[in-house]
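thoughts on my protein:
***
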Amino acid sequence: MQEQTIIIADDHPLFRDALRQAVIGMEGHPEIVEAGDFAAARMAAGAHPEADLMLLDLSMPGVSGFSGLMALRSEFTGLPIVIISATDDATTIRRALELGASGFISKSSGIDDIRRGIQTVLAGDIATPETYRDGQEQDPDVADLIHRLHTLTPQQSRVLTMLAEGLLNKQIAYELGVSEATIKAHVSAILLKLDVDSRTQAVIQLGKINMALVA
């Protein structure tokens, strides 16, 4: 059986070590790739296309909240991502799952619960804390926004998250290896799908889904 590869992306060395201990104790002893910030997490995913899973801290240097999840989901569509966070209220968990996470593990979980969550996702299921009870999004505006975000293509999602990072069209074009005209077309499509008039408004809309993280 081919050895599994798990990417651990968390900026806290002590918690990365806890995640490592959880993974080491699994059957087969998966290969572990570590990343301490979002840029390193992205590089790790690119360098290990065979990776079976990424454990992603929701708040990492180089990215804001759910934007990191969205960016990675759009760029690495086949990589299951499990969100790891100390913010583990029902709203945060639900939004993570709605935005493409394959599971959610609270940072207050013990090693055995973390390992069980990882194994659940590797088996093809969704992992959530035992106390989590699914429900409807309480904010109708956010529910509508998440629906609109799902209409974006993977490339449009990437462009939107890069807009949120403050990058200019020419910088985005360089990063994605396409023409500036292509980026302008993507931005126009994003504004139309999000029903906003400017890139600034689009970024503000994206920020709304992170409100639960700072409330």
Observations:
- The beta strands are 5-9, 31-35, 53-57, 81-85, 103-106.
